[in-house]
Amino acid sequence: MSAPDLASGGAGMAHEEVGQTAAWRARPDPATAGAVAADSPSADASIDIDTALRREMLRLAVRNSGRSVPLLVGAIVFTAWLGWNSGAVAVALSTLAIGSSVCVWRLLLARRFSKSVPHGRREIDGVVRQLEGNAVLVGVMWVVATSLIYPLLVGTHATVYVVVVCGSVATSAFFLSLAGRGYRVLLLMQLGSLVAVSLLSTPARSVPLAVLA
Known about the structure:
81% of the residues lie in helices and 0% in strands. The chain contains nine helices and no strands. Helix 6 packs parallel to helix 8 (182-200). The chain is elongated and about 55 Å long.
């Protein structure tokens, strides 16, 4: 083989190696592909949609919490009256005080956020924490009433009290289940205290009720 043929052959091989190297360098790096995808407009749009859905669910939760106040007021007044009528005056007043705080808190939340919820994630989380805190506070009220008023009730009053507790649980599902862990906390506190009293308190002992709850 002549020198020109060798030279042309070497040049062809060199061009081929350069082409392969360029192709290898042009391939995307798997380590950075995810970061590029995360910064893409489609990823930003997905985040925006998720945030918008969360804001809308939170707005509905806040609005429905405000609408639940009249029912809650009726339950609070009735429970306090049961305690007063049974001689547990201090517990009745405590129920009124805690319940009134819960109602005012819900109305303030509804007045501020029922039409528009903040866009920032930190502000959204703040509203969720307020709903969760409200759920804990009303749960404390029900624990106090169930532990200290319910054992004093007999006959129809005891039955109606259980119905009121179950109605409160059902009503709370319409708004607390839309935001955070508030509904689960309230459910645990309301039904947990009812089960505990039904099993441990002699005057209110009812194993069937504890099983159903």
